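The instructor's notes for this session suggest beginning with a concrete chain rather than abstract definitions. Hand out the sequence below and ask the class to guess, before any prediction is shown, which regions might be ordered.
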Amino acid sequence: MSEPSTSPASTAATPSPPSTAAPRRSWGQTLRVYAEPASLRMLALGFSAGLPLLLVLGTLSFWLRKAGIDRSTIGYMSWVGLAYAFKWVWSPLVDRLPLPVLNGWLGRRRSWLLLAQMLVVGGLLGMAFTDPQQDLNRMVWCALAVAFGSATQDIALDAYRIESADAERQAALAATYQTGYRLAMIWAGAGALWLVAAALHGEQAAYVHAAWQLAYGVMAASMLVGVFTVLLSPEPAARALTPARNLGEWLREALVAPFADFVRRYGGQAILILALIGIYRISDVVMGIMANPFYVDMGYSEAEVATVSKVFGVIMTLLGAFIGGVISMRIGVMRVLMLGAVLSAASNLLFAWLSTRGHDVTGLTLVVSADNLAGGIASAAFIAYLSSLTNVQYSATQYALFSSMMMLAPKWLAGFSGAFVDAHGYSSFFISTAALGLPVLLLVALASRVTLRTKA
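After discussion, reveal the predicted structure:
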């Protein structure tokens, strides 16, 4: 990845406001951004970031359901994902604390990335050697370790991305990051299920732990993509940090200042922005927890789910992310945010229709394609929007706050999804998740009137 022509500190602090139209550029200039070293590096790091998520949520829920764990328990176990919602708690440490030994070797951003990746690898290996039928508690603790490491990696990676390129390239970096992220989700979803199916030698066994042990062991080894990328990548230009004279001053600078800066810039409008961030992806997140149990209960095999949901569907997400990144640069992020919100809520209604079809692979393909295309468009625009809200002086902490807010309410509500399905059925559940997206439309409309203030 080539270094930007100006220092990150001087560029990332002044991103182009998404509420106004982006400067016009030719299609050739727009597309060439995706071939730049910075974009290609984010492709590999996005893979490292995307790999753990499904392994502690989606793929794990499929594993647990095959192992005979009830839907309510699976829903409550999704609260492991709340680690992503509370990462703002330790984000100031990642943002400002140099790690002994590693900092002198790799720099602050890359040293935290490497440490987080090692924690993910260890947690995945622990999950691989745990049978949920025999020791569900141990599975929970290992999954928590993976989630904590993954959330820490996200904190450092978001700061690395924001500080590695100028503001007008953030939408393209977000799109390539999402591409790598979704490729990892193909591997963590379809790849894991294919490995399980291969270990079973085509037999339709209800549950064999050794097959899942193999799959999760391979997933742990796959994290080496991120490890090698970190080791071979340049550290962004370090910004000077004023040494704190005492612990109280350090806490004020690390914990209070980043949040005070955001409130000072936006005043009362900060509440509106945080509300939008807090519920923008609520329809997708709440619905997603029960997607894999739904596939199991509808009789879809590992191979069918791998091919349709985890490969074809994710390819559609990649297409959506690319479309979202391109049109965000040309027509503005807020318009694409609105489009993504509408499509994401509407696509959940298709799952309600699918629940009435029984075992219908064609229907599954159509529904998953539409849902993932909508999600890709929404994600690319949303990441660019979050990036534009940060002040580079507090990039890791502020971005962690925003992305944590995005997960907190949806993940908490998703924990009750299994109990809701048990009580009301899948069709009512999918319709209800679509309705959750309606307030998002109003918040996007109101937030589009807010002038972004990137400097205090």
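Then share the key points. The chain has 24 helices and no strands. The radius of gyration is 21 Å.
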